[in-house]
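We now fix the convention by which a protein and its fold are recorded. Think of the row as the fold of the chain written in a discrete alphabet. Here is one such record, which you should read through line by line.
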Amino acid sequence: MIEMQDVWKTYSDGTHALKGINVKIDAHEFVYVVGPSGAGKSTFMKLIYREERPTKGHIFVNGFNLEKLKQRKIPYVRRNIGVIFQDFKLLPKLTVYENVAFAMEVIEAPKKLMKKRTMEVLELVRLKDKAGSLPGQLSGGEQQRVAIARAIVNNPAVIIADEPTGNLDPETSWGIMKLLEEINFRGATIVMATHNKEIVNTMRKRVIAIESGNIARDVVRGEYGYED
């Protein structure tokens, strides 16, 4: 599903964020990406959904070579990649329903399908009764569930979650993780960057640890392994 071959990323200020990364992530895997702050985790994630481009190397996602992707093909590829951010990135003036449906509007989905699918995912994230609410009327956990609904509404093959529990209390965080586990069970590949030691050590999924731009560990049923 995801493969990086000798991937390097050097920013314009000379920072070597990633150095010769080689990794394969299979369909339906749930993978944690861990490491100290500034290790290269965010760059690793952004390369997968082509927010950034590698300085050198090849990246394949769902059969597409991202390095050679024509500009007009980028929206098509991104339809199959759902992204969940730490700060939710919801549109404050749109309702819960409208925030989720917006992801389908972008790909010009039929209105009838849009309504049906949006309500399906709101039911999945247990927010059907909040469809008419604005983001500001929701708790942090509810806002993150809206963000998850938006990320999965187009049935993406890959979910990229960048610190999705970073702003949430422990109880709410576990609710989000149970939801992500269910989405993974339904078939999506999930790659999640996190600093949450307890979640990683309890759930025991595959762990890719990045240190100073290199993969330091890649362990099936791994542990967090850092103090921060």
